Amino acid sequence: MPADLPSETPSPSPTQPPHGDMARRMRDLGDAAGWEEVDEEVREAWDAPYGEAEEWAVGTLDREIPGPHGPVPVRVYTPQGPSFSARPLLVWCHGGSFMHGDLEMPEADQVARGVAGRADAVVVSVDYRLCDEPPEMGGNPARSVGGSRGGVHAPIPGDDVCAVVHWARESADELGADPLRIALGGASAGGNLAAATTLRLTEEGIPLAASLLMYPVAHASLPEPTAEEEAALSVTPPVLRFPPETMQIMRTAYVGGDPEAAGAAVFPAFASAERLAALPRTFIESDEFDDLRVSSRAYADQLAQADVDVEHVVRRGVSHGHLNRVGLREARESMDRMAQIMREL
Q1: How far is it, in rounded angstroms, from Cα 323 to Cα 329?
Q2: Residues in CB range of 181: below 8 A, 6 or more apart
Q3: Which residue spans within 215-289 are E strands per DSSP?
Q4: Catalytic amino acids?
Q5: What is the pLDDT of residue 134?
Q6: How far is CA 307 from CA 137, 276, 278, 295, in A?
Q7: Which residues cross the membrane (predicted)?
Q8: Contact 126/62 with Cβ under 8 angstroms?
Q9: How many Å apart are CA 39 and CA 224, to the nearest integer?
Q10: Which of 212, 225, 220 is nearest to 285 (CA)?
Q11: What pLDDT, on the 0 to 100 scale, is given for residue 236?
Q12: Superfamily of domain 21-344 in the CATH hierarchy
């Protein structure tokens, strides 16, 4: 039976400023609609770490995994020291609007390292293929991944992730991991890839132990916000928002066509309850001051209605992408919860 969805604590009203370390920096952003409108000192303060990066006794190994579109770079994080049983394993996908991001960004490296250390788990961070920026966003070509460049659209990034999961299962003994305790997770665009790939693998008969989705986008078009969500978004600085035109550009870059015609293989919210019902335990976390939180909430509702064991929480006081903020208390709390789930597998 599905886990009860926790009731959300009230968000600050539109007349009250949000609270927390990140929220204090948010207020300094004011009404700027773009980063070019933000004072340089304010931008530097916004990007500054909140504290020291975490240190864990975790070793790393970079390697390339065979995939249908060429090699897929990964970084394997393994806790140091003896383990008296096979460890759980998390395949992790960073975010970046499907067009940006790499294995060095905190949302990839710090999260993989932090979960591996906390949970005594193996984490495989995936450097999946990226899509080129459309002209509206500058038209910059995607960073080359695995020797390929250009022409990347769905389902190619998901194919990369799928290949890594298959490799992790087949290489579990080598990795010191339990093939029956493999979870797939990701943040933002990576959360989309993790959700869609989990559905795909489940329907292929490949069991996963859990799905960890951090502020994902599961819909081609964002659902309408609730009154509470609208109140939080009304005090979110415009520069941190995802207006419809921006969402459309990112979706089109990813899909390479009409996002509404993409189907559940790209946006899992398109899936019927019957298809969703077979999904594994799913943890979904959204950020309070984030347009994408409506997708997290609506997808969690769909999973609950399909009798999936789902838990949805809202991380209060933060905007989209808080796992990229080194030293942030809320980022540590998110990794604590992810690690707890990995230990429970």
Answers
A1: 10
A2: 86, 87, 88, 89, 209, 345
A3: 281-289
A4: 188, 290, 320
A5: 75
A6: 40, 9, 9, 18
A7: none
A8: no
A9: 33
A10: 212
A11: 96
A12: Alpha/Beta hydrolase fold, catalytic domain (3.40.50.1820)
Q: How far apart are the two ends of the chain, measured CA to CA in Å?
A: 17
pLDDT below 70 — which residues of the chain? 1-18, 135-141, 143-144, 146-150
Q: List all residues 6 or more positions away from 120 whose beta carbon is below 8 Å from its beta carbon.
A: 79, 83, 87, 343
CA distances (Å), origin 108, targets 79, 188, 226, 331, 333: 16, 12, 31, 13, 16
What are the DSSP E strand ranges found in 143-280? 177-187, 210-214
Q: What are phi and psi of 105, to 5 degrees?
A: -65, 150
Sheet with 177-187, side-by-side order of all strands = 58-65, 72-79, 122-126, 87-93, 177-187, 210-214, 281-289, 310-319
Question: Tokens in use for 267?
Answer: 């946006």
Q: For residues 128-155, b (16+ Cβ closer than 10 Å) or e, as one string? A: bbbbbbeeeeeeeebeebbebeeebbbb
Distance of CA 230 to CAs 94, 295, 301, 340, Å? 27, 13, 18, 31
Kindly give the interhelix angle for 109-119 and 329-344, rounded to the nearest 10 degrees: 50
Q: What is the pLDDT of residue 15?
A: 37
- Residue found under tokens 């390292």: 113
Rg from Cα positions in the chain: 19
Q: Tell whether omega for the bond before 155 is within 30 degrees of 0, i.e. cis.
A: yes
Q: State how beta strands 58-65 and 72-79 pair.
A: antiparallel
